[in-house]
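anyone seen this seq b4? input:
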Amino acid sequence: MQNRIGPWRHALSRLLQALALVTGTFLAASALAASASAGTLIVQSTTSTRNSGLYDHILPAFEKDTGIKVKVVAVGTGQALKNAARCDGDVLVVHARPDEEAFVAKGYGIRRHPLMHNDFVIVGPKDDPADVRHARSAAEALTRIARTRAPFVSRGDESGTHKKEKALWKAAGIDPTAASGSWYREAGAGMGATLNMAAGMGAYTLSDRGTWLAFNNRGDLALLFSGDPALYNPYGLIIVNPAHCPNVNLKDAQAFRDWLLSEKGQKLIAAYRVNGEQLFFPDALPQKDGEAEKKDK
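predicted toks r here
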């Protein structure tokens, strides 16, 4: 009987050793993955903040202060919100306030924090065939473009800029998509690519001021209309809700939020200039460390 049990004990011992090896390998791999992701923050962001060069200006200071590495995923605001709702990201920096508030209301985000603002501008060919520069409002400027059938390039990507553009066309009482493919062109791309397309076609387009000021391939384009309150462009910051996405890097997200809303972060945003012009204007009052976190609870 003892001879029969011996081989089984040996086999069981070998099996347990193998399981221990597999378990150890799995735990080591998990620890390595956790170590690789620790201290890395994923920011789902509108393209305008990256295209304008703002992140190149502020992120080195943040990383120096905190040791946290930041990966920016720059897409249109609509896509950034979709990505974050699918738990692909820790923080949002976007500019479509109604959609941001809906994102929070659905439980995808903790809270929307006002971060900064600038404005939208209408740019187009310097000879201005639609006489946009003499319009009294943004809606009138678009009406003049439609009336003359002057080429207009839309981002067409459900970004914050595209959503603003659609709201302006609606205010003008015009559905430009009826002219899609003729004078109204849809780029389906980011702001930089849309500006490049407008420059190549000698067309009008709507741009956030920050990207326009940082854009170097202007060709014959010029800023033709701005200043209408309807062109106000606020940016919000939202931490993805860990109750919806348990994998959120909450600690680093809170550190990023508190730093950006602090006096130092806000002053750095205000200090960013291109050719002497300020691109963004801070909207957050100086807050002590952790103050924003307390308000979230």
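The radius of gyration is 25 Å. Residues 1-37, 287-297 have pLDDT under 50 and may be disordered. kinda curious what u guys think
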